[in-house]
Amino acid sequence: MTNNMFHSLHYPKPNLDNIYNVYDFELNFIENILDGKINKSLKLYEDFFCKHSAYNVIDINNLQSLKSYIISLSLLICHSVIKQGVSPYSAKAKYHAFSNLIEKSLSRTEVIDIGRIMIHGYIEQVRQYAISIDNIHIRKAVDYIHDHLGENLTLDDVANHVGLSKCYFCTQFKKCIKISFTDYLTHVRIQKSKYLLCNTDKSILDIAIMVGFNSQSYFTSQFRKHTGLSPKEFRNKKGAIESKV
Predict the structure, then answer these.
(1) pLDDT tens-digit series, residues 38-76
(2) Could you give the domains of the chain?
């Protein structure tokens, strides 16, 4: 697209107050989800789409427009719950599951209903998995783990990366995360593998290597230990899992 074509495009300019109203809704809505307030979140949602008709900024009577907005809203929530401490892989899997359901919806009522389910789904994640990390060293360690998951990570590696002794790092890590370094590393690897199993067609061996397991058999045993299913069984149940988001 040339610059001339770009500048010739017309963008509707709704009332600025309405734009700010939508922005305020999004901030307040996400804040309540992060606080785990289901009733308040649902009321804000109902008021926005039913009482205020999205302040005439989003055409909620246009099915595709409504789908696009709720998917974008889901993405905002997804990124927010990740910042709150939910595993990126769990949050992204939830986002993709909701997006697929919304895209397949055939009516405005169905899309709005999925939005209500979405609220419950993200709040459940926050309540189950969110970790508040105030310790800057442990926050750095967690980020490092997620960024280097496919590598042969050791306790020494991560402790050295954040500049703490191994013993002190272990104590602080468990104090902040509530589980040991080894257990957390395995948990994150399993979470990412679940995401890859549901959202890619990569082989189980490839996924095992990508998330840092040295062999498919050890990956399978750890996966079964944490989920009650083998990786293959989990992948085969993808549709059923998505329907429970």
Answers:
(1) 999 999 999 998 776 666 777 878 999 999 999 999 999
(2) 11-133 (no CATH), 136-243 (1.10.10.60)
Question: What angle do the packed helices 88-104 and 108-129 form, to 10 degrees?
Answer: 170
Query: Are the C-beta atoms of 40 and 88 separated by less than 8 Å?
Result: no
The DSSP code sequence of 147-190 is HTTTS---HHHHHHHHT--HHHHHHHHHHHHSS-HHHHHHHHHH
The answer for residues whose C-beta is within 8 angstroms of residue 148's C-beta and 6 or more apart is none
- Contact of 69 with 111, CB cutoff 8 Å: no
pLDDT one-digit tens code per residue, 187-217: 999 988 988 898 888 999 999 999 999 999 9
- The overall pTM is greater than 0.90: no
